[in-house]
Amino acid sequence: MSHEEHRMGTKEKLVYMANQIATFFESKPHDEGVAGVAKHINDFWDPRMRRQFFEMFDEGGKGMKPLVIDAAAKIRRPRQDAA
Amino acid sequence: MGLIHEIDFGTPASKSEKQVTLTVDGFEVTVPEGTSIMRASMEAGIAIPKLCATDMVDAFGSCRLCLVEIEGRNGTPSSCTTPVMPGMVVHTQTGRLKDIRKGVMELYISDHPLDCLTCAANGDCELQDMAGAVGLRDVRYGYEGDNHVRAKNDGVANFKWMAKDESNPYFTYDPSKCIVCSRCVRACEEVQGTFALTIEGRGFGSRVSPGAHELFLDSECVSCGACVQACPTATLTEKSVIEIGQPEHSVVTTCAYCGVGCSFKAEMRGDELVRMVPWKDGKANRGHSCVKGRFAYGYATHKERILNPMIRDKITDPWREVSWEEALTHTAKEFRRIQYQYGRGAIGGITSSRCTNEETFLVQKLIRQGFGNNNVDTCARVCHSPTGYGLGQTYGTSAGTQDFDSVEDTDVALIIGANPASAHPVFASRLKKRLRAGAKLIVIDPRRTEMVKSAHIEAEHHLALKPGTNVAVVTAIAHVIVTEGLFDEKFIRERCDWSEFQDYAEFVSDPRHSPEEVEKLSGVPAETIRGAARLYATGGNGAIYYGLGVTEHSQGSTTVIGIANLAMLTGNIGRRGVGVNPLRGQNNVQGACDMGSFPHELPGYRHISGDAVRDIYDSLWGVKLDNEPGLRIPNMLDAAVDGTFKGIYIQGEDILQSDPDTKHVSAGLEAMECVVVQDLFLNETANYAHVFLPGSTFLEKDGTFTNAERRINRVRKVMAPKNGLADWEVTQRLAQAMGLNWNYQHPSEIMDEVAKTTPSFANVSYEFLEKMGSVQWPCNDKAPEGTPIMHIDGFVRGKGKFIRTEYVATDEKTGPRFPLLLTTGRILSQYNVGAQTRRTENVAWHAEDLLEIHPHDAEQRGLRDGDWVRLQSRAGETTLRATITDKVSPGVVYTTFHHPDTQANVITTDFSDWATNCPEYKVTAVQVGASNGPSDWQKDYNEQAQQSRRIAGHLEAAE
Fold it and tell me: Entry's Pfam families (chain A) (predicted)?
C-alpha cells in the first residue's frame, strides 16, 4: 500500500487497523487467529468503530484480509442504542 | 513543621549481613561488618567532627578532622577510612585529638574568608559548624600571605584568587570559599557518574575545576546538583539560597517530571520555595536528583501561568476571564447540550499523566459516571500502551517487574530503545554506578547514545539497528538463545506453559530469524546479535530496561512481547537483579494507567465488559456503567472529523504538540464544539479550546504519584494553589455542576475509594503511606507491605505465556522522495513538550530543537553545521537547524520535540501500533534539504497561536 501524499479517512483507517491486527495473528493456527482478531476488536473498539466496520463488511469487506473476514462472525455487532 | 534534618553518617552503609560489636566512648554499638568507625559512632549517637566525609560518597580521608584513637593501635587513624573490628575500643575525644583537630581547623580558616554574617551558607555551613565543634578561638597564623581569598594582596593582583563562576543558571562556584575537600568531585563521579569535575594543580595550588579549567556551563556538567548538595561550604550554592536566604521548614514530596519519581525535600521560607533537595530516604532516587527535579521548578511562578478561568464562543475570539462558577456551569451546560444533540457518546475526556492518581481517578469517574460512556484515555496511549498490552498478555500484569534498587544486583543490563541518561537521569546514574562496578551493558538503539559510551562506561555490544526493525532483532536474539541451547529449561518448565514454549522455540528457530538473515533487514552485524544474545543469556542476572524506542512503532506491542519472551527464555524474572523494566515517561503515567484511564479498563486493569467488576462501581456510584469500550485518543479525533464526537475535557495534556500528525489533531479539535483544557499555561491544544480551566502545580496540592517501579509516593502541598483550586477540586466542581453528588473533602478520601474498589490497592491509604514512606502495588492482604519484585513464585497470570513475534516491516517506507528515516527523542534538560522546562532557565542548555544528521548525508545535501534545514515527510514539513554528528548512522536523522516552534509532530504520520494505536513516532520517512528559515506552515501556525492566545482586557497575548 502506498501512502505517499495520502491521508487515510476513518473507514479506510479501520480496515487498515483490522488488517494490522490480523497480520499479528496470522502467525497463529487459523482458529486461534480468528478468535484472537475477534477478541481484540471486541475488547478495544468502541461501538461506532465496530458499526463502521460492519458497514464496510456488509458491503463486501473490500480490502479486508481473509482472517478479518473470517473473524467478523465472532465480532460483536453493536447494539442500536450503544454510544 | 521545621526543617527536616537528615543524619549524615559520614560514609555509606555496609551491606554485609555479618554484625560486629565495638565500643565507642564507652558505649557498645553493633553494626554490619565493613562499616567505618565514623558511621558506627554516628549510629551510637556520637558525631565525630568531619569535613571531607559524607555518606553519599566513599570515604576519602583527606581533611584529617575525623581522627580517633583506638586502644592497642598506634597513632590517630581517620575514622572515615578505618573499618570497625570486633571488640575494638574507640575514643573520639582525647586531649591529643582535640589539639590536632584545632590545629587542622586553624589552617583551614587561615585561608578562608571571614564574611560569615553575609555568606549565603550562614546557618548551613559545615566549616562554620566544625570551627565551633573543635572550639577554634584564634588563628595564630593570621590571614596575610599566600591565600585564595582576596583578589589583591597589598594592591597587587593575587593570581591564586579566582573569580566566582556564575555561568550555571542555578548555582554559583566561589573558589575563594573552597576547602578542597573533593566532596563535589566525588559526588560527580560516584553519585552522578559524569566525571565533569576534577582537582587541578597540587598542594596549595589545588582547585576544583569543571572540565579542563572551564566554566561550569561550558563543561560536561549536567547540573544534577549532587556537587552543590555535597559541598560543606558556600563554594557551591544554589542561586535561590543566595537570593532568598536559608529555608525554615521543609516538606517531603515527589518530583513531577519523569517516571523515576524522585523524592525531594521542598525547603521553604514561608510559602516561598527556596530549593528542592533530594531526600536520602527516597527509595527511587536514594538522595540523588537531575537538573529538572532539583532546579527546574520556576515554571510554577512563571508570568505566563494562567490563574483565572476563561471562556469564549469561538476559537477565533479572544479569551474572556470569568469566575469558576461561570466557567464550570458553562462547561456542564455545553456538555449536556452536546450529549442531547449528538448522543451520549459524543463527549469524552483525557486524564493527565502529570496529575495525581486521585485527580486521574476523578476524571475517569466523571466520564464513566457523569458522561455515561467510556471515552476516556490518557497520554500513555502515545507512549507505553504497548507495554500494558504486551506484559498483560505474557505475564498478566501491565507494569515493570522490579524496583530500581534491583539494578544493584544486575550483571548484564540490556537497554532497548531508551536513553536513560537523558530521559531518566537518576536511574541512569544508578545503572552507571553498577556498570562501573563491573556489570556488562548491551544497547539496542539506532543512535550512539551516551549510554553506549561515556565516562567510564562502554557497552559491550551496541546494536545500532535501522529504525523499525526491533521485532526482527529481538526475535533473532531469541533465535540464538534457543538454537544454541542457552535457555533456562528448568525455569521454563516450572513457570511457563511448556507447549507454548515449544511452539515459540520452533518459530524462532526458523532460519529466517537467524542473525545472518536479520542483519540484512536491520543492518546489525550477525556476530553482534549473537554476542549480545550469549551475554544476556549467560552473563548472570540479566535485566532489560526499555523505553519508547520499543513501544512507539507499528509493532510496539510485538516488541514488548518479544522482550517478555527473552526474559522468560533465560529465567530472568522473579528475583533481584533481573526483570523487564519499562522506563515510564511521565511522573504519573503508571498511575494514570492504574487508575482506569484507558477506555476499555476500570482501575486495576479490569476490562469494562466484566459484569462483576462493573457491579462494584454500579452499586457504589449508583449508575449503570456502559459495558462497551470507549474511544482511544486517535479514535476520538477520527470521530471528531467524522462529526460524531463533539466535546472533550482535557486535563493536563497537550495533544496538539505531543500527538502525531499535528494537522489531523488540529482538524479533530477544530471540528469539536466544546474543547475544555485544564492546564497551567495556554498550551498548544488551548489554541483550539473554548474553555480554559487554570491548573495547579504539584507544589500546590496533596495526592500521590506512582512511578515506573509501581511505587506510590506522596505528593504534599507546600503552598496554596495560585489559581485557587487544586485540580481534583476543579474536576469535583465540574462533576457537581453536571449534577453528580460528589463531596470529597481531601484527596485521601479519593484514595480510600480506590482502595475499596481495586484489589491491587486494597491496603493503600494515606495513613499507611505516612508510616511506610511509600509502597509498591500490589499492596493487599497477600502483600501487606507491597511488592518490590513481581512474579517471584509464579506469574500473575499463572503460567508465563510465550507468544510468536513475527516481524512485519512498517508501511512507513523510505523511497526516492523520502530517503531518510527520522526518529525522535528527548534531551536531559527538557521535558516532554517543554511546557514546564521551556519556562525555566533550562533553556540555557537547549534553546531549540536540532536535527541530528550524519556527516555523509549532510555533505550530499550541502548542509553545514547550524544551517536551517527543511524537514519533510508525507504528513507535513517544518524547518529547524541541523547539527552534524555521527551519533546517528547514515540514513537516519534525529530530533527532539520540546519546542512548539519546531512542531516535530507535523512530520510524524498516523501509522500506529497494531494492538493499541500507540503512534509510530520513532519511524518517519523524510527528506532533508537546505532552507532559508521557518516554513509557511510555521508562520501560519504562530500567527494562529498568537491570535488564539489573546485575552480580553490584557494588552498582550499571554505568550
Answer: FdsD (PF11390)
Same structural domain, B367 and B422 = no
Chain A nearest-CA distance from B664, in A, is: 9
Give residue A82's pLDDT band: very low, low, confident or very high (50, 70, 90).
low
| Structural domain contains residue A83 | no
| DSSP code, position B82 | P
Cα B152 from Cα B108, distance rounded (Å):
20
Let me know if residue B723 belongs to a domain. Answer: yes
Q: Which of B390, B424, B395, B427 has its CA nearest to residue B408?
A: B427
* Amino acid B179: pLDDT: 96
Q: What's the pLDDT tens digit per position in B285-307?
A: 999 999 999 999 999 999 999 99
Residues B209 and B272 in one domain: yes
Task: Let me know if residue B478 belongs to a domain.
Answer: yes
Q: What is the pLDDT of residues B730-765, one digit of tens each?
A: 999 999 999 999 999 999 999 999 999 999 999 999
User: Chain B partners of A8 at a C-beta cutoff of 8 Å?
Assistant: 910
Q: Do B345 and A48 touch (CB under 8 A)?
A: yes
- Among A13, A23, A78, beta carbon nearest to B914: A23
Over the stretch B641-650, which tens digit does the pLDDT of each residue have? 999 999 999 9
Peptide bond into B778 cis (omega under 30): yes
B921: pLDDT strictly greater than 90: no
What's B680's domain CATH number? 3.40.50.740
Identity of the residue in A21, A24, A46 whose CB atom sits nearest the CB atom of B631: A46
CATH number, domain containing residue B99: 3.10.20.740
Residue B938 DSSP SS3: helix
Establish, for the pair of chains A and B, how many residue pairs have beta carbons separated by less than 8 Å.
Answer: 84
For residue B638, give how far its alpha carbon lies from the nearest alpha carbon of chain A (Å): 6
- Taking residue B453's Cβ as centre, other Cβ atoms within 10 Å add up to 13
774-833 of B, contacting A, C-beta below 8 A: 804-806, 808, 811-812, 815, 817-818
B164: domain CATH number is 3.30.70.20
From chain B, pick out residues whose CB is under 8 angstroms from the CB of A21.
Answer: 914-915
Q: Which domain holds residue B187?
A: 152-301
Tally of domains in chain B: 5
Radius of gyration of chain A from its Cα atoms, rounded to whole angstroms: 13
Q: Are residues B571 and B430 in the same domain?
A: yes
Q: Searching chain B, which residue's CA lies closest to the CA of residue A19?
A: B914
Whether B143 shows a pLDDT value over 90: the answer reads no
Residue B437 belongs to a domain: yes
Contact B879, B931 (CB under 8 A): yes
Check CB contact under 8 Å for B374 and A13. Answer: no
Whether residue B336 is predicted with pLDDT greater than 90 in this model: the reply is: yes
Tell me the chain B residues in contact with residue A32 when contact means C-beta distances shorter than 8 Å.
none
Determine the distance in angstroms separating the CA of B805 from the nearest CA of chain A, rounded to an integer: 8
Our CA-based measurement puts residue B780 at a distance from the nearest CA of chain A, in whole angstroms, of: 28
The SS3 call for residue B408 is helix
Contact across the interface for B631 and A49, Cβ inside 8 Å:
yes
CATH number of the CATH domain containing B899: 2.40.40.20
B664 at A interface, C-beta within 8 A: yes
Domain of A67?
Answer: 10-74
Give the total number of structural domains in chain A: 1
In a domain? residue B773: no
Same domain, residue pair B368 and B410: no
CB nearest B600 (choices: A7, A24, A43): A43
The 3-class secondary structure across A6-61, one letter per residue, is: CCCCHHHHHHHHHHHHHHHHCCCCHHHHHHHHHHHHHHHCCHHHHHHHHHHHHCCC
Domain-embedded: residue A79: no
With respect to residue A57, please indicate whether it lies within any of the assigned structural domains.
yes
Residue A64 belongs to some domain of the structure: yes
ipTM rounded to 2 decimals: 0.90
- Three-state SS string over B595-630 comes to CCCCCCEECCCEECCCHHHHHHHHHHHCCCCCCCCC
Average pLDDT, chain B: 94
Helix H or strand E encompassing B662 = helix B662-670
> How confident is the model over B679-699, as pLDDT tens digits?
999 999 999 999 999 999 999
